Amino acid sequence: MANILIDKVGKHFGNFHALKEVSLEIKDQEFMVLLGPSGCGKTTLLRAIAGLGMADSGRILLDGKDITYLPPRMRGMSMVFQSYAIFPHMTVFDNIAFGLKMRGLEPKQIKKQVGKAAELLHIEAMLERYPHKMSGGQRQRVAVARAIAMQAEVLLMDEPLSNLDALLRLEMRAELKRLLSDIKVTTIYVTHDQIEALSMGDRIAVMKDGIIQQVDVPGKVYDLPQNRFVGSFIGNPPMNFLKATILTQGGQLWATIADFSFEIEAKIQEALKTYVNQEVILGIRAENMEVLAAPDPKALGLRVQVLEPLGSQNLLTVSIGQDKLKVSTHPDFPAKTDELVWLRFPSDKIRWIDPQSGQSLRA
Ligand code: ATP
Fold this sequence. Notes:
- By secondary structure, the chain is of the alpha+beta class.
- It is built from nine helices and 21 strands.
- Adenosine-5'-triphosphate binds next to strand 2 and helix 1.
């Protein structure tokens, strides 16, 4: 069992407030991703969990036991660092065995645990090699094998794939995901790469400025962002945001974008009532608009500024006043630069956002 509860953890560096009352629960054997832009506090939070940089307020509980100020070696956690931190003067075997030797395990047991970890990472044929004779990808495997060999119940990983080239990252991403689900360990994984987070995590905690913005399963974080930041940080391209004015007509609420109006779906009308005659932000993802090649009374006609063929889709940039909109189409869709396309906004795909707070409005 390894259930972690982070309860209102705060951390300052001098006057800088790096973590602001962060609370998060990570369930036993869960793969939790901490995702956010550079400097948002992901590593600071991971280090507080590991005991490498103590929190200055709040508590961290492991299976109900307060470990906030416990020394790292007594927490039963192992960690993979972004830099790998493997020892150049030691063979792969000795690198993987390092923590086990420190723990005073019998040589026979060390050999067994090193062998098993090396086998899982497919580096069993390299145990006598030195790190300088290995590729970046192989060194990364050594770092993961060393962490796994400890057979700790909690594995902490800080951007473990960020030093690999794009192709190797893709390969290791899938391999790590399979490996970690096989060994059934509670994992906290730090990354600033939203694709890595979406593809690997059971849940994602999205951070900004030392605050957790949303904790959810990948599909929800992508589809129902808690606020404008989450919608813009996750997804490539990011979610589109347009200014829309809310009006009433015949007892119903309507939204107007430029000179195009459409009726707002019934279930969200209550939440939008207070915005009548005011602007709100309409969020919609590039792939969620219907794109038509001919005029339609229920569609907004916009001129294509840029057309980017991306193989499996074409990405169009269209503009509405000051707002730019990214729209994805099938590669066969007959769009041309400087010509019009017509867009429909399916009501179940629209996300409404308060323009002041940036928070999503929910039914
Ligand atoms: P990255 O993806 O770039 O590693 P991060 O989200 O992991 O970013 P942290 O390393 O947690 O960010 O840092 C959060 C903030 O705290 C940053 O602004 C950083 O400059 C600051 N910080 C981190 N460690 C220290 C330190 N030892 N002393 C002073 N400031 C620090």
